[in-house]
Write a structure and sequence with these properties.
alpha/beta, transferase, Aminotrans_3, pyruvate, pyridoxal phosphate binding, 16% strand, Aspartate Aminotransferase, domain 1, seven-stranded mixed beta sheet, Aspartate Aminotransferase, domain 2, 2 domains, 13 helices, aminotransferase, five-stranded antiparallel beta sheet
Length: 417
């Protein structure tokens, strides 16, 4: 990416993962130009068009047959948070229940219902009247295991906790309308859910007839090394929320769900921009390109290369607490061993250090995002077309930035300035 002053950057934020093929991919641009040249309508609400039909066909082709063969699709207004709102309404309508199970560390958007599901309490404290009846469950976060053990034992306890909550008549939790989770928590700090835990959660929700909503708004469409992150665990959801990459860089959101939940009346949920034709054109090309070029496999390969580089950096600097992620969704958590930390985990998250590293990266031509506890995790979401050579450059810049911040005697916040 080139800025207004002519400075060039590697963009490892990429629209929060929206730009799966990078900025202005020629095939995406050509498809948009062709649609404009053909004088097609730009906005059609629910009217079927060739562009919409092709998009749905491509999207369903990218999904496992076990899911897509009995799935319906609901187009929403354009943001991922709109898909989450639609999913909540869907499962509440289908079950007649109102409580929802969510997870600590989760992020599902900034509208009222989606914000209520968020794990970050700071983001919610100033908002009055958030949706009630949301129960936040422990997420298996090995580095800061809520049960203090981590690993297989940690996620076994986590799933046992959920099952006990659902069977205990004194748990205080009424029959839930659904459970929502991210197979890889993004804004929460790039935390992948263990495959075994996801399999247990799927078993538990099926046993108790609780619709399982998987939020793949950021992780979906090849980013984690599978077309969808839930495929790592060989499960399928009842409801899948999608946005970001499916629009090819343009605003588009959708909910794909099991037909058994399709009990709401036509028009129960709508959104003005649900018929965004240019987004469907761009999305179709993006999905087809990812499938044709096996970019999910590419994400595994170059993601492993990036991970190796980041692990090398971690070995050299005590400020790095953990490197984690899947495919081209990687995170580096920074810690401060001298700071007080009352939670689980060996050291306090160091948001100041992370912010300084982010600034040092920017000065050197690399754009990264921060997330997680205390915004202490550097997050990498490069386009899926990133090459091995570019990954090497990205990792070298990051390493240099960490070294620059770690080697200074000044306050990290001063380096960030």
């Amino acid at each position: 990416m080139t800025d207004m002053s002519g400075n060039e950057y590697y963009d490892c934020l990429a629209g929060a993962g929206t730009l799966a093929l990078g900025h202005n991919h020629p095939q995406v641009i050509a498809a948009i130009e062709d649609a404009l040249d053909a004088d097609r309508p730009l906005h059609t609400l629910d009217i079927s068009t060739p562009a919409k039909e092709r998009f749905v066909d491509s999207l369903f082709e990218s999904l496992p047959d076990e899911f897509s063969d009995q799935a319906k699709i609901q187009f929403c207004s354009p943001a991922g948070t709109d898909a989450v709102e639609a999913a909540l309404k869907l499962v509440k309508t289908a079950t007649g229940n109102r409580s929802v199970l969510a997870f600590q560390g989760g992020y599902h958007g900034m509208t009222n219902g989606a914000l209520s599901l968020m794990g970050d309490t700071d983001a919610k404290e100033s908002i009055p009247g958030l949706m009630s009846d949301v129960h936040h469950l422990p997420f298996p976060y090995d580095y800061r295991c809520p049960f203090g053990v981590g690993g297989t034992e940690g996620h076994r306890i986590a799933s046992d906790y959920v099952e006990n909550l659902l069977t205990d008549g004194e748990s205080g939790v009424t029959d839930p309308a659904g459970m929502i989770l991210e197979p890889v928590q993004g804004e929460g700090g790039t935390i992948p859910a263990p495959d075994g835990w996801l399999q247990e959660i799927r078993r538990i929700t099926r046993k108790h007839d609780i619709p399982l909503i998987l939020d793949e708004i950021q992780a979906g469409l090849g980013r984690t090394g599978e077309l969808y992150a839930f495929e790592h665990a060989d499960i399928v959801p009842d409801v899948l929320t999608l946005s970001k990459a499916i629009g090819g860089g343009l605003p588009l959101a959708a909910v794909v769900y099991d037909e058994n939940l399709d009990v709401w009346e036509p028009g129960t949920h709508a959104g003005t921009f649900r018929g965004n034709q240019l987004a469907m054109v761009a999305g179709e090309v993006t999905i087809d390109y990812i499938l044709e070029h096996d970019l999910d496999d590419h994400a595994t390969e170059v993601g492993s290369r990036l991970r190796d580089h980041l692990e090398t950096t971690a070995e050299q600097f005590d400020a790095v607490g953990e490197v984690r992620g899947r495919g081209l969704m990687q995170g580096v958590e920074f810690v401060n061993s001298a700071a007080d930390w009352q939670g689980a985990g060996p050291h306090a998250p160091d948001g100041e250090f992370a912010e300084a590293v982010q600034a040092a990266c920017f000065d050197r031509g690399l754009i990264i995002e921060l997330g997680g506890r205390d915004s202490a995790t550097a997050r990498f979401l490069p386009p899926l077309v990133v090459s091995e050579g570019q990954v090497d450059d990205i990792a070298a810049i990051f390493h240099e930035a960490v070294a620059a911040v770690a080697g200074t005697d000044t306050d990290p916040a001063e380096v960030a300035v």
